[in-house]
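User: My advisor, Dr. K., asked me to get a structural model of this assembly before our group meeting. I'm new to this, so sorry if the format is off. These are the inputs:
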Amino acid sequence: MARTQGSHSDITGPRIRAAAQELFARHGFAAVSMRQIASHVGLQAGALYNYTSDKQSLLVELMQAHMEDLLTAWAAEPKPGDVMGCLEAFVRFHIRYNLQRSDAVFIAYMELRNLTPDNFRQIEAHRRAYEDQLEGVLKDGVEQGVFDVPDTKIAALAVIAMLNGVLTWYRDSGRLSLVEVETIYWDMVRKAVGV
Amino acid sequence: MARTQGSHSDITGPRIRAAAQELFARHGFAAVSMRQIASHVGLQAGALYNYTSDKQSLLVELMQAHMEDLLTAWAAEPKPGDVMGCLEAFVRFHIRYNLQRSDAVFIAYMELRNLTPDNFRQIEAHRRAYEDQLEGVLKDGVEQGVFDVPDTKIAALAVIAMLNGVLTWYRDSGRLSLVEVETIYWDMVRKAVGV
DNA sequence: GTTTTATCTGAACATTTGTTCAGTTATTCA
DNA sequence: TGAATAACTGAACAAATGTTCAGATAAAAC
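Assistant: The format is fine. Below is the predicted structure of the whole assembly, which you can bring to the meeting.
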């Protein structure tokens, strides 16, 4: 048999990407087979090739979509007029946004080595663009005398690394709410870069 | 032919582990084959099984050795009498030690998902023991009124995550020396947890 | 109601995988 | 010198891999 019921093209594609994202995040790109992905969607492996040219493309598309969504979401985030408020907005946005798509974040950080050089450069450029957003806030703050860091680039990387750490331990069922976690990290970031 | 010259058992073992560590760190455990490891040492794949029972054991032994070395090295580190000095010692030690074995650190953080449950628990216990070392310093500091953090456990995780970020960008040939990097991070950590 | 098309199956392909093991050689021990 | 052993080769194994494609079937178009 073939098509079991209705037209599936517009729903099968997203389901494949969702299954791939979950499996890549859990087991790693190299450890997941096309047959496993297909099985999660209820397909045979061959059917995947109606939606992707090969396995690597599946990974690249997930990473690209994630990075672009991240940049778009931050651009759409309302920003206070003062740098201190901007930094707080970034911290809370980053924690909240990344926790809600931890699978995509894990992949974007762990599977860079499975990309071809071209694809790597593209994803890396996106990441740098995001880091530049934070560094811009820090630079403004330093100029205004609100922040004090010896190196805004390193400070930006340090802050992002610290915030990403939340992903390794946060659970929805844990003792702290999302907002409480945000506030704890915001306190530490504010003090770390403050005058 | 077989043995080409001299007795190799005591030198081949370490060379295999070194090759495995480098390849696992660069391409990921699942993406590296036993034949690649053997080829890096100048052996056939079958010869590896004189030194390891299987591929997973090779990974576990690397991770265990790394975590135990880390705990031993920190235990041997001289510690000042005051908590502030202790925290500084931890920050500088962590950056320096981890940068000097970035391959082992990468593996210990990225390949946890390739471990069997038993092995995972063992490595995780080691990691927690290391985190507890830092949390102990923070707790003492809070009691003495030298530090101010709402949650010592989260603060410890945040500090370690921030320090680990160095691994993703530091290069020996970069514009900053190791000591300069240590100092920049120590400044941020000190302010982040300070009163 | 017939033809066309989108969607999927199922089998096949050449490679590669981890692992085993009988045999081979260089070294060590008696 | 001869026997024993440590260290390795090279071939083999079944299983799994990414990918292709002819054919089957349901839905859509006419």
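One thing worth pointing out at the meeting: Chain A has nine helices and no strands.

User: Perfect, thanks a lot.
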